[in-house]
Amino acid sequence: QVQLQESGPGLVKPSETLSLTCTVSGGSISGYYWSWIRQPPGKGLEWIGYIYYSGSTNYNPSLKSRVTISVDTSKNQFSLKLNSVTAADTAVYYCARDMGKYQLLNAFDIWGQGTMVTVSS
Amino acid sequence: SYELTQPPSVSVSPGQTASITCSGDKLGDKYACWYQQKPGQSPVLVIYQDRKRPSGIPERFSGSNSGNTATLTISGTQAMDEADYYCQAWDSRRVVFGGGTKLTVL
Q1: In Å, how far from its chain's centre is CA A83?
Q2: B95 neighbourhood in chain A, CB within 8 Å
Q3: SS in 3 state form for A23-40?
Q4: Cβ separation of B94 and A60 shorter than 8 Å?
Q5: CA distance linking residue A62 with residue A89, whole number of Å
Q6: Mutation test of the interface with chain B: which of A2, A37, A45, choosing the one with the most B Cβ atoms within 10 A?
Q7: Contact at CB, B49 and A105, closer than 8 angstroms
Q8: B48-101: per-residue pLDDT in tens?
Q9: Which of A1, A13, A49, A70 has the fewest beta carbons closer than 10 A?
Q10: Nearest Cβ partner for A108 among B45, B49, B96
Q11: Which DSSP helix (H) or strand (E) runs through A93?
Q12: How far apart are CA A20 and CA A73, in angstroms?
């Protein structure tokens, strides 16, 4: 079955860029929308944005000025870049798949295990 | 911006029915879904498109959505259902999550 795995640095300095990659295994990245979602320690979920396998994107307006999501279909991966980070960006970052194939159903049926990113000098 | 409001906590006795609400302006005009998250684990989708259950989700989980409120109902609640539950909807091209509800089974 399809599995997602996040990877990237667990510690980022303030004002620098957070970079994460999600690798899709057990299935193709094609045909689906792929999202990044984060969860600060002890708090709720926040959607960061999504990318369609074709490359079109949509971001949370609250983060849009700092976020870039890209896709590499040849590697079955998609990536997140969040620049100018502060301590408020400290969170568990999840990648997730929208369950609709060739359509957006706005429900995430597959999630990665999550990766903790701490912003600190 | 659109907001979804959930009660911070709900308690239920084993075997009883738990109801968790999610409120938002004209939420019934949108699709709502629900996630279960246990400590240290990733969220799991338990209801999508208001009332549909993904494969593998027990029948005791059900959902409804009307007016301004979506509701997740767990019938015959078991100890294993103790978790945080999040509702989620889509508004103005943006995914929105509720603040989460901690379900305690005692």
Answers
A1: 14
A2: 35, 47, 50, 60, 106
A3: EEECCCCCCCEEEEEEEC
A4: yes
A5: 12
A6: A45
A7: yes
A8: 999 999 999 999 999 999 999 999 999 999 999 999 999 999 998 899 999 999
A9: A1
A10: B45
A11: strand A91-98
A12: 16
Residue B104 CA, chain-centre distance (Å), reads: 14
Q: Which residue of chain B has the CA closest to A43?
A: B99
pLDDT band at B37 (very low <50, low <70, confident <90, very high): very high
- The beta-strand segments (E) located in chain B are 9-12, 18-23, 32-37, 44-47, 61-66, 69-74, 83-91, 94-97, 101-105
pLDDT digits (tens, 9 = 90+) for A69-81: 999 999 999 999 9
Candidates A34, A56, A108, A115: best to mutate against B (most CBs of B within 10 A) is: A108
Q: What is the pLDDT of residue B81?
A: 98
Q: A108 contacts in B (CB within 8 Å)?
A: 35, 43, 45, 88
Token readout for B51 is: 């009332």
